[in-house]
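User: quick one - fold this with magnesium ion bound?
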Amino acid sequence: MADLIKTKEQIETMAEGGRRLGAVLDALREAVRPGITTRELDRIARMQIEAGGDKPAFLHYRPAGAEKAYPYTLCSSVNDVVVHGQPSNYALREGDIVKLDLGLRHNGLYLDSAITVPVGGMSAVPKEVRALIAATEEALYAGVKAAKPGKRLGDIGYAIERTVHKAGFSIAEGLTGHGIGEALHEDPAVFNFGDKGTGAILKEGMVLAIEPMVAIGKGGIVQLRDESYGTIDRSWAAHFEHTIVITAKGSRILTPNAS
Ligand code: MG
Ligand code: MG
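Assistant: Sure. Structure tokens for the protein plus magnesium ion:
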């Protein structure tokens, strides 16, 4: 599938877009505090992306199976909401966790990245939630590290799953990472679980969004009224995501941020 391989020029364009996206996520992390509404975070995200001459990737995007196009720039998912939470007048409270998932289009190419932020800082959330956030971020980097030319998609999923299970948490079911570039979601699906040495072979120039979504309790999820996904058991969930490119030596994160 030669169309999955990006050119050097495309990769450098995506690296610039990813650098910009990481900077917006850093600004959003700084803006998170008790009392701020998720709609205000959305406003900041849109303003910063557009100020750079780029386009929000999620705004007006209609995912497969969704009834309506998405009306916001940011996905802001609080506590037991895993992903696709819609910004609202909800004012964040100390001790909440908010997942900030953001995409942009830079010179025609898409980038996608997410962070989980504890409102009021790490000391404001219980030990178990701190462990959840740490394990999810660790799982992301384990997945990134496993992404090398000659390895397979299942190696990424295996590395993520192993890290999450070792910490005693669950992978949110039915949600995956994805290829990305000329479209926000391209083949292949990047599962957060898998068997070593199985699945498509990873090749230099492939660009993937790797994104573990992890719950404290069971991994079952349900679609909520605003088309977001929450855990069935209402246990809290975390999410971290980077867009990466497979290089000759391993992989390179295209969406670096300060976390
Ligand atoms: Mg995302
Ligand atoms: Mg994604």
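One thing worth noting: The chain has one domain: 8-253.
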